[in-house]
Amino acid sequence: MQIQVVKSKIHRVKVTGADLNYIGSITIDEALLDASNIIEGEKVAIVNINNGERFETYAIKGERNSGEITLNGPAARKVQKDDIIIIISYATLEFEEAKTFKPWIIFPNENDNSLT
User: Fold this and answer.
1) What is the pLDDT of residues 4-23, one digit of tens each?
2) What is the pLDDT of residue 116?
3) How does this protein assemble (predicted)?
4) Which one of 22, 58, 90, 114 is the catalytic residue?
5) Would you call 58 a catalytic residue per the annotation?
6) pLDDT tens digits for 82-116?
7) Is 116 annotated as a binding residue?
8) What residues pair up with 56 in beta bridges, in sequence order?
9) CA 113 to CA 31: how far, in whole Å?
10) Which one is catalytic: 8, 25, 36, 66?
11) Residue 27 labeled ligand binder
12) Is 52 annotated among the ligand-binding residues?
């Protein structure tokens, strides 16, 4: 039997932009992607702390150490600049493997989205 578990989580980052006219996705600072083990193109769930919205999109790389968190395309309608969000990715694992799996969970600074 296989189950889905949290693979990666970027807990509480501030939205720096929303670009309705971009094709789609969420742009995430490359340093945050690396620290959370999320790769470009990976499906992610977004949870907006400010308004309760939950939706899915995919990750694209932003400039390293820029603090960028930009929702693009239709997802831009579900956030406002300065909203606090949680970004989560999941993995499908065998049940026994899932029991010992440890996800990558990071807690960036909410003020500037840095890792320090």
Assistant:
1) 999 999 999 999 999 999 98
2) 80
3) Heterooctamer of four alpha and four beta subunits.
4) 58
5) yes
6) 999 999 999 999 999 999 999 999 999 999 999 98
7) no
8) 45
9) 10
10) 25
11) no
12) no
